[in-house]
Amino acid sequence: MSIGLYDYDRRYRRRFWIGFIKFILFIALLLAVGLFAYQLGVERFKRRDASLRQEVDQLTEQKDELELLASRLKRAALNAEARSTALEARLAREIPRGDQARLLQLVAERLESGVSAERLAFVISQAEERSECSRSETKRFMLSTPIFRSPAGAVGFGNGQVSVTGNGKSAVDSSGNPEAWFDPAEPVRIRFAAHGGKETQVEDILPIHHAMVVDDTEYRFTLLAGKRSFIEVTADRCPYP
């Protein structure tokens, strides 16, 4: 009886230790697998970290390059703006405006019509404000419109040497219907005709200033809107040149 009990206890202990050793081996295997997985994860993390660091370095380098490019573009834009401002100022100084532009246009027209540059230079050099101009003379006439033909639509100066006439756009009433008199807010067309056939037309909004030379006399005209339908013409006659 004692021998059978001994064998049973020994087999029990053997099975226990075998099971315990298997458990320990299983735990060790799990630990080994976990450690391997951990090491694999660490390696992957290191590689990912290195890749991210490299990507960050590349992005930082690109950022620095873009900032440098932006700085250069900003500097170029400022230089271009400065050059544009200087050019505008130069154009404002050099491009004729107002009376200068009008004089240059008149000179160009006279050159194209065949007047020599020497003649124009002589006339300009001799031109001056003269005190011996005759006393101003003012007359008025009724301006014709598309629906009204004025019977008193012209005035003459210098004993008929120069006549002034013209036409304009009809004024409209509150309903938009045209009226007989002209609209002083719209451009008018004025015709200056000299004895002998010389004629000049000017189209502009009143007041209008115009000068023309007939023989040895310069006529200087100023046209203003007068009472309804009328234009007042003031003329000065001065020796020329």
Features:
241 residues; rod-shaped; 49% helix; 3 helices; 4-stranded antiparallel beta sheet; single chain; 3 domains
Would you kindly provide a written description of the structure presented here, covering whatever features stand out?
By secondary structure, this protein is of the alpha+beta class. The chain folds into 3 domains: 1-91; 96-127; 134-239. It has helices at residues 2-94, 99-112, 117-126, and strands spanning 137-142, 154-157, 162-167, 170-172, 178-182, 188-194, 199-204, 208-214, 217-225, 230-239. The strands form 3 sheets. Strands 1-10-9-8 form a 4-stranded antiparallel sheet, with no helix packed on it. The radius of gyration is 52 Å and the shape is rod-shaped. The protein starts with a helix and ends with a strand. The model has no long low-confidence stretch (mean pLDDT 84).
Number of domains: 3
SS strand fraction: 25-35%
Structural classification:
alpha+beta
Overall number of strands:
10
Biggest sheet details: 4 strands, antiparallel
The amount of helix comes to: 40-55%
N/C terminus separation: 163 Å
Name the strands of the widest sheet in spatial order: 1-10-9-8
Helix count from the secondary structure assignment = 3
Poorly predicted regions are: none
Radius of gyration: 52 Å
How would you describe the shape? rod-shaped
Mean pLDDT: 84
Order of helices and strands: HHHEEEEEEEEEE
